[in-house]
Amino acid sequence: MASAKTVTEVGFQPPPPTTSKQLIVSFPAEHTVQLTLNRPEAMNAMSPTLQDDLERTLAWFDAEPSLWYVTASSSLNSDTRKNLLLFEDYYTAF
After folding, report:
1. Cα(17)–Cα(42) distance, integer angstroms
2. What CATH number did the domain enclosing 10 receive?
3. Count of the separate structural domains present in the chain
4. For the purposes of burial, counting CB atoms within 10 Å of the CB of 85, is it exposed (0-12), middle (13-18) or buried (19 or more)?
5. CA distance 20 to 10
6. pLDDT at site 78
7. For an engineered disulfide with 80, which of 35, 51, 69, 76 has Cβ 3.0 to 4.6 Å away?
8. pLDDT tens digits for range 58-81
9. What is the DSSP letter of 41?
10. Beta strand residue intervals within 44-84, DSSP E
11. Domain containing residue 74
């Protein structure tokens, strides 16, 4: 399976907006943009910068006729993963 293409590899005109390091934009398949929230230190909580990045990127997506799908994901560090697993274990026990 091919890896996701980066913004510079795809060559959209106009290109997607530049984003902060809090949002990673990639293109894993034809007609698809993937948005990865990248604030693992804050468990990917929304910030004003991330909100601005999302608003500008989604407005660009809406105007880009060759893109049909948006997928969203988040980056997590090992401590966050462990905490989420503990949270899941706790609430599925009931």
Report:
1. 24
2. 3.90.226.10
3. 1
4. exposed
5. 19
6. 58
7. 76
8. 999 999 999 999 999 888 765 655
9. G
10. 69-74
11. 5-92
